[in-house]
Amino acid sequence: MLRVPVHANDVEQNQCQETEEDNNFDYYQRAQRLRAAVLGATDGLVSVASLMMGVGAVKKDLKPMVLAGFAGLVAGACSMAIGEFVSPAEENLPNPVQAACVSALAFSAGGLVPLLGAAFIKEDEVRLGVVVAVASIALVVLGVIEAKLGRTPVARSCFRVLVGGWMAMAITFGITKLIDCSKLQL
């Protein structure tokens, strides 16, 4: 909105005039971008936490777990950026470079949560618990944001996001543990 001062009888009054820019602003597209950013953060969070849980299932040292999480963060952010860059082809979609940057940043922001949560914890079992705990808290927060943006029930959204994240972490942990127990030579 553009505020235009109007002077009448030596009294200044502010009246609002809509500009052409205001009329052309697409709130739906803005909400979709925000929702995509939240989904990217959720993806980064679940991907990196699951990867760290998988490595933590077989390696007790901090360094391999954090390195794997960091590599997953970088690879995932690059993958998300490339995917976004090649997908916006129509005129009404966002700028491909902007979409790629937002997607990479959102994935990275989500992926940093488990990395920072575990980065300084030496004891392996505590570290795994911290990854699950910080990921769970962040998933609930992201579930609330997704529900608000999508106008869906908050409890249902949080439950789905949280259980989905737990399943991803548990499956990755379990399969990696199973492969390690089978003594496959990889």
Please provide a written account of the structure.
It is a single chain. With 186 residues, the protein is mainly alpha-helical. The protein has helices spanning 20-24, 27-58, 62-86, 96-118, 124-150, 154-181, and strands at residues 2-8, 11-17. It has one domain. It is built from six helices and two strands, in the order E-E-H-H-H-H-H-H. Strands 1-2 form a two-stranded antiparallel sheet. Strand 1 and strand 2 (11-17) form a beta hairpin. The longest helix has 32 residues, at 27-58. Residues 12-16 have low confidence and may be disordered.
Helix count equals 6
End-to-end span in angstroms? 62 Å
Strand content: 5-15%
Secondary-structure element order, as H and E? EEHHHHHH
The number of strands is 2
Helix content: over 70%
Mean pLDDT: 86
Q: Give a quick account of the main beta sheet: strands, pairing sense, barrel closure.
A: 2 strands, antiparallel
Q: Output the strand order for the largest sheet.
A: 1-2
- Overall spatial form: globular
Could you say how many structural domains there are in total? 1
Radius of gyration: 22 Å
Low-confidence stretches: 12-16
Helices and strands: which structural class? Answer: mainly alpha
Label this structure with key terms:
186 residues, mainly alpha, two-stranded antiparallel ribbon, 6 helices, 2 strands
List the helices and strands and how they pair.
Blueprint: E1 2-8, E2 11-17, H1 20-24, H2 27-58, H3 62-86, H4 96-118, H5 124-150, H6 154-181
Antiparallel strand pairs: 1-2
Helix pairs in contact: 2-3, 2-4, 2-5, 2-6, 3-4, 4-5, 5-6
